[in-house]
Amino acid sequence: MDDRQDWEQQRAWVEIDLSALTHNVRQIHSLLAPTTAIMAVVKADAYGHGAIEIARTVIAAGVKWLAVATVNEGIELRSAGIVAPILILGAINTDAQVQAIVNWDLHPTICSIAQATVISKAAASLDPHPDLHVHLKLDTGMSRLGTDWQQAVDFYREVIALPYLQIASLYSHLATADELDPTVMEMQIDRFDRSIAAIGAAGYVLPLLHLANSAGLLVSDRLHYQLVRPGLILYGLCPAPHLHSAIDLQPVLSVRARITQVKDICAGTGVSYGYRFIAERDMQIAIVEIGYADGIPRRLSDRMQAIVRGQLVSQIGAITMDRIVLDVSQIPELQVGEIVTILGADGNVSISADEWATTLGTIAWEILCGFKHRLPRVSK
Fold first, then answer.
1. Beta strand pairing status for 132-139 and 107-110?
2. Who has the most CB within 10 Å: 30, 96, 151, 335?
3. Whole-angstrom distance, CA of residue 216 vs CA of residue 143
4. In the chain, where the domains are located
5. Which position among 273, 275, 372, 380 bears the catalytic label?
6. What does the alpha-carbon distance between residue 292 and residue 305 come to, in Å, rounded to a whole number?
């Protein structure tokens, strides 16, 4: 993240409120028993927030584990000096990946016996032979990565018999925890619990267990086990409207930009590419230095608002690669260089990623991950 004196000169930036992040971690902790730890999901550059700074902050707030999607994401954190255990959520299938995992002390997910065999053989070729902490994933109904839950005992037995592998945890992932209808979630919980019981009945000592994503940990403490894996709620957004009352969250990310020109246009004047907006009256407009190359979806053209001096104003015309146009007719004596809030709060007015997601028919996760890295991340 850039120093504060640098970003004051930027055309646009992503602002990260680390105190809000710490607040959210504390709120999550308040829902958990002392025996349940947090595994913070910081994949995709911490949902666009900046993985290194986010990881350092959540660890300082008491988070014990981190989770990422890829080996390279794990290496980035290790290279920054982060020593907390890091789980790789994605599948590992090559000797080169295993070598990197050993070199950087990462924890791989194992989704199948075939994959476990590859990892064990790769470890055997290394000198000295490492003991890898591996995490077994069951498919309880998501139908993505993992071994079928009905084969849990055989899966566990075969992995534990392989050399150089130490089972650190057993986990699965919920498909519908954020929905009002609990039918599928209850099915997955039952399958996970039956798998756990079967492994225990077969005489094996159970490792750490985890199932709950953000929505799951809010729904019920039945889903907490020894670890929970919050993602979205870390960053201050709730995964579903009906869960808002379960936790007090503060948004971590804001997006701001500067006005580079203010001008008056007459009724009948077209604005931006394609003249999709034509002024019906005389107007004052502001040109703002942020566009779809920075992460504002072009489909929001003529459908979004921004905040100027604590007032909502409408975006007009096609959103372009590098800039947007705002109708600022109601704001007197507006000056070049003034700050516009694209997402976040200014005074008592705010715009959230949820609002954009609703407009576009998508999810807040996609919005957060969309802000490109030509926007500097700035902590406050």
1. parallel
2. 151
3. 18
4. 18-238, 253-379
5. 273
6. 15
Q: Rounded to whole angstroms, how far apart are CA atoms 138 and 250? A: 33
How many other CB atoms sit within 10 Å of the CB of residue 135?
A: 21
372 is catalytic: no
C-alpha to C-alpha distance for 329 and 310, rounded to whole angstroms: 14
Q: Where are the beta strands (DSSP E) in 200-351?
A: 208-210, 227-228, 253-265, 270-271, 277-278, 283-288, 305-308, 311-316, 324-327, 339-346, 349-351
Whether omega before 108 lies within 30 degrees of 0, making that bond cis, reads: no
Report which residue type is found at 47: Y
232 with 239: CB under 8 angstroms? yes
Question: Which class in CATH covers the domain with range 253-379?
Answer: mainly beta
pLDDT in tens, the chain (380 residues): 445 446 556 899 999 999 999 999 999 999 999 999 999 999 999 999 999 999 999 999 999 999 999 999 999 999 999 999 999 999 988 889 999 999 999 999 999 999 999 999 999 988 888 889 999 999 999 999 999 999 999 999 999 999 999 999 999 999 999 999 999 999 999 999 999 999 999 999 999 999 999 999 999 999 999 999 999 999 999 999 999 999 999 999 999 999 999 999 999 999 999 999 999 999 999 999 999 999 999 999 999 999 999 999 999 999 999 999 999 999 999 999 999 999 999 999 999 999 999 999 999 999 999 998 899 999 98
Active site residue 43: yes
Cα gap 342→287, rounded to integer Å: 13
Beta-strand runs (E) in 122-252: 132-139, 147-148, 165-171, 208-210, 227-228
Whole-angstrom distance, CA of residue 272 vs CA of residue 302:
11
User: For tokens 């105190």, what's the residue?
Assistant: 19
Q: The dihedral of CA 154, 157, 161, 165: what is its sign?
A: positive
Q: What's the pTM?
A: 0.94
Give backbone dihedrals phi and psi of 266, rounded to 5 degrees, phi first: -95, 160
What is the spatial distance between Cα 310 and Cα 312, in angstroms, rounded to a whole number? 7
